[in-house]
Amino acid sequence: MDRLPRRLSVDLAPFKAENGPHATRYGLPEAVRFCTRCVISNQRPNSAPEFATKADSLKTTIRFDAEGVCDACRAAEVKAKTDWSQREKELRDLCDRHRRQDGRYDCLVPGSGGKDSFYAAHILKYKYGMHPLTVTWAPHIHTDWGWRNFQNWIHAGFDNILSTPNGKVHRLLTRLALEVLFHPFQPFILGQKSIAPKMSVLYNIPLVFYGENEAEYGNPVDDNTSAKRDWTYFTAPDPAAIHLSGVSVKDLKARFGIEDNDLAPYLPADPAAMQRTGTEVHYLGYYLKWHPQSCYYYSVEHGNFEASPERTPGTYSKYNSIDDRVDDLHYYTTHVKFGIGRATYDAAQEIRSGDITRDEGVALVKRYDGEFPERFFSQLMDYVSLPAEQFPEAARMFEQPILDRAYFNHLADRFRSPHLWAYENGAWRLRKTVWDRLG
Hints:
Layout: H1 13-16, H2 71-81, H3 84-98, E1 107-110, H4 115-126, E2 132-137, H5 144-155, E3 159-163, H6 167-181, H7 186-203, E4 207-210, E5 243-244, E6 247-248, H8 249-255, H9 260-263, H10 271-277, E7 280-283, H11 284-287, H12 292-303, H13 326-338, H14 342-352, H15 358-368, H16 377-384, H17 405-414, E8 421-424, E9 427-430
Parallel strand pairs: 1-2, 2-3, 4-7
Antiparallel strand pairs: 5-6, 8-9
Helix pairs in contact: 4-12, 7-10, 14-15
């Protein structure tokens, strides 16, 4: 692996041309379309195993049908027709099969103490009589209110194992994920998706509950027909093919001074060990009708959940994904790479849930999507900077180990796709938006 350069030239010519076709990146569809029911575009990448992602990986994207309706909206239709009383019976049967009466934990609930994980753990314990162990993969940098919500979760009656990775390694992987993939949230996702299956093996607790299925947000609608999460999200058949932050494990060890034990928390779970344990990873949202706003109200009522004291940058909400300061930066990067920011994700979900209309969603996206993540930006640049005295080996792999705003903005421009972005009069604009076209 070569040294990461300070600046690579960005050819602006493709971004200035008005007439297509325009070059596309990441395997995205060239023709940008918007769902006729919500505000999501066909550029939304589907969830995929993060440990297989490289700089040149191509994305599969949300599917639109012949009527211009996205898979997530079709999943919402199916959800509205589901017999939830029958699904709850299936949940009770599942709990009855796994419930332990000897004082041991009988299920695992991963989460941060946010509205969704609070709801899941609390209802499993207090309504269905389970004995959950909650497990948390630590955020990069807790927000103050996120930390208080985490404490409120525990004090609502739960044991918790907080897994905090090596701080120096986490900073380095976050910097690499930003530099190589423009995906600074990936190191968190790597641990968050695999921690519960690993703990299942370690503590011999076969039953694991995550919240809602990714199909509710745009993964193939057929994925929602199963209660169980596909093992491909948290296991890897070929360890040699694993990439973390877009870099091979081999290069991480040879070029960045990272050792095997440093990488262990990020690596996928061992499928053979999971089979011996009998690990089953279920979506609670398969059994109970999942509604994020209801989870919020439930967590406020039963656990004093605290919304952010201010609107989250890039969107209009104050209670969704608020525990990690890197969240703001993460959603800004999705806006740069895919033309989809945080307001789009929030509004699309609320339209499908019947909480707002499409017209309201369009207005909210127009007002807030792509807002620069100003509030924590300086702290985040310090976090992903790698001073040579702290990172003597890794810092040599970067021409500019210390990040600043100019470097970040240039990096962002390197990840833009010409089919999404135009450059005019010294400024960037999206070529197509949900508010200037119908569907």
